[in-house]
Structures are given as C-alpha cells and as structure tokens.
Request: fold
Amino acid sequence: MSFRIEELQSAYLRYKTFMSRNPRGHHERFIFPFFAGSYFSYRKVDVLRVVVIANSISSNPKYVDVGCGYGDFLFQIRQFIPNAIGIEQDGSIFYIFHKPKPAFIYSSYEDWYNLGPFDLSFIGWMQPGVDFRESVSGITKCVITTFDAGGQCGIMGGCEYEEFGFQKLAWWRTPSWIDVNYELMNSFYTSPLKSDEKKMNFLAGLRSAHNFWYVYTKPEIADRVRECLRDWVMKEKEEGIHFKQRFGFESVLDECGFHYMETLESLSSRGNQLWQVEFD
Ligand SMILES: C[S@@+](CC[C@H](N)C(=O)[O-])C[C@H]1O[C@@H](n2cnc3c(N)ncnc32)[C@H](O)[C@@H]1O
Reply:
C-alpha cells in the first residue's frame, strides 16, 4: 500500500467533512475514489462486458480482482458471478476505518495461489511500480487490466502481457476518476470559473479520458473470447443496453461530458470515442 496510515486517516476526515456538507449526488465517488468509489470510472456496460468475457471462458467462471481495495467494482461483478473473489494485500484498510472485511476479499499471496487457477483475473488501477504480471500470468487464462495513461504502468511496472504468453484481443477507453474530478472541480468547486463561460468552454474542449481497458487471453481461447465479445458489443449497441442498464452514478459522467460513445476532440483518431471497443 503506497499510502501511510496517517495519510489515509487525514484523507478520511476530509471525506467525512465533505459528506457532512450534503454534496451533490455521487460527487464523492470521483473526489474520494478510494473510500467511495473506484480509480476507474466505470459504467454498467463495463461490468457487463467483463461478465460476458468471463462467461465465454467458463459457464461457472473463476474470477479474481487483484488489488481490489474495498471492492467497489468486485461488488458489481458479484451480482453476476457470485463466487468472484478479491485480493487486497493491505487488509488493514478495513480495520482502520471499521469497515467489515468481506469474506470474499483475501489478503495474502498464499490465499491467491491456493484459490487459483482462475479463468479471469481483473486488475483495476494499480500503483505505479507495482508489477505482478508474472505471478498473475501463471494462474490465469485471461487478464483484463485497466491502466491509466496519466500515471500508471509503463513507468516501472507494466500493463502488457504479450511477453507472458497472452494475446491482446481488444481494448476500450474510459475516463479515470481524475479526468472526471477535473470537470467536477471546474464546474462545481471553482466559483470564479463558473461565471466565465468562455473559459469553461475552453476547458471543456481540453477534456480527456486516460483510462484504457485491455483484454488479454491465452492463445487457445482467444478466438472464442473475441467472437463472444464481438457479438456482445453488437447487441449492446443494437439493443441500447447502455440506456436500459445504468448505475445511478453514471449521471455524473454524463453531466461532465463523458457520455457513452462520446467523441473527444482532444484525442487523436483511433480510440477517441469513449466506450467504443476496438479489436486487435
Ligand atoms: C489504487 S488502489 C485501487 C483499488 C481498486 N482496484 C480501484 O480501482 O478502485 C490499488 C490497491 O491495490 C493494492 N495492492 C497493491 N499491490 C498489491 C498486490 N501485490 N497484491 C494485492 N493488492 C495489492 C493496494 O493495497 C491498493 O488497495
């Protein structure tokens, strides 16, 4: 864990103060992601895509979320894969804040290895420099990793799995909490800016989205998983699944201009459309 206990406690006090002021709905998710949300800003369609991928590997998939924190994303996955588990190396985060530690979140490498092998290992936002690709690769058939181009992987750790015998099948782009946080700060928490429409429009044009979701599998299941995801993505669009199935907090993403399939002008060509799945 890269945060010290005192840092976490101080952040938690600020979080409590923020909440006592009755903030607008769901803002806390994107201002205090560790306590109230996730470091990646997902929608229900992301959860459903991950579930479709897991189910394409097995009818009863073994799923692990590595570095799951308090388990915000894992809780959503468990609505569909009830046996999904999480690994969070720092079990003390639960005890410090008197949160019950769910039985399906484990804290040791030993648990991780004993509970594997897994059909799908999900690796949400991980601190720069943390690199357990080799360990993950040995006990999983599929890796879905979200990485933040603004600060994670590529620096000391890594997010690519080709060198560990995996094939990259597909990827899509979403905002990270920090992208949403900037928009919230500009629109709601920086009063001089709010009255300056020109400045607000200028800043909106700079809007970016740094979070990439990469799907890797072992070669022997690559074709099957790719086809299932392709079929699902077609269904997602044709049946308007995004409009039918949403989390309440998605309204904040819309409000901040990070709509489903929004094209961000500040990004260069391929992959500049949010949530658009690109196949490799
Ligand atoms: C930035 S948080 C992300 C939490 C969650 N995945 C999310 O996106 O909101 C990274 C978490 O990974 C945990 N972590 C770091 N290295 C780990 C490891 N080797 N095994 C398990 N968890 C680890 C940290 O303790 C921390 O809670």
Q: What stands out?
A: DSSP finds 14 helices and eight strands in the chain. The first strand starts at residue 63 and ends at 66. The first helix runs from residue 5 to 20.
